[in-house]
């Protein structure tokens, strides 16, 4: 387990909003936790009423597993518990009710359930990088940059089927040996443990070549006509 002391935790974007995923397959709590960890990050950590409401909208009235179980005093991903939303007389700890579900047919209130019961579940996923932009463009290179998601997360940059792994400390990357005046589409993914975000795309073009052979083609008392060699990939020019 990893304890993230800052407010922005895995499963949130640059604004601190968690990326939740509904798993409709009915699983026990342990199976749901394994499924979330294998395919996303972990079972949902619900940090406030706004996130509980977002899961409510996602679950559409279903009862779903969330990332709490007894006797743990933290969420499944190791983050502190700062928000609780128990149903009346819950948790009642009757019998083997050691795992917690949120009932969105009852306003999203939480209750304890036997861990072997099979329910739908809510995972949280890896957020995409924010604010993907072209920071610099030349005739042969483009530098893309983005907003850091979390200091523990790395990135993948994909271009034309080729992928580059980027360290967590880096939030920009320069791609060289490109063709002048050509558009390229880049996709950047966030990576956390074995999970990868859906990716964000950016299309940017390299700077076109300068026209060559600039020369006067005609002159009179009130005008000068200039002429240059055509640049094949240019649609227009600025004088």
Describe this structure in words.
This protein folds into 2 domains: about 20-125, Mannose-Binding Protein A, Chain A, CATH 3.10.100; about 130-205, Sandwich (Immunoglobulin-like). About 10% of the residues lie in helices and about 40% in strands. The protein contains 2 helices and 16 strands. Strands 1, 2, 3, 4, 5 and 6 form a 6-stranded mixed sheet that branches. Strands 9, 10, 12, 13 and 14 form a 5-stranded antiparallel sheet that branches. It comes from Myripristis murdjan (pinecone soldierfish). Keywords: Disulfide bond. It holds the Pfam family Lectin_C. This is C-type lectin domain-containing protein.
Instruction: Estimate nothing, just give the exact number of structural domains.
Output: 2
Q: Provide the gyration radius in Å.
A: 26 Å
Mass-distribution shape: elongated
Instruction: Please name the fourth-level CATH homologous superfamily of the largest domain.
Output: Mannose-Binding Protein A, subunit A
The CATH topology assignment of the largest domain is Mannose-Binding Protein A, Chain A
Query: How far is the first residue's CA from the last residue's CA?
Result: 61 Å
Helix content: under 10%
Oligomer: single chain
What's the CATH class of the largest domain, please? Alpha Beta
What is the succession of H and E elements?
Answer: EHEHEEEEEEEEEEEEEE
The count of β-strands is: 16
Let me know the average pLDDT. 84
**CATH architectural label of the largest domain:** Roll
Q: What's the helix count?
A: 2
State which percent range the strand residues make up: 35-45%
In this structure, how is the largest beta sheet organized? Answer: 6 strands, mixed
Poorly predicted runs are: 1-16
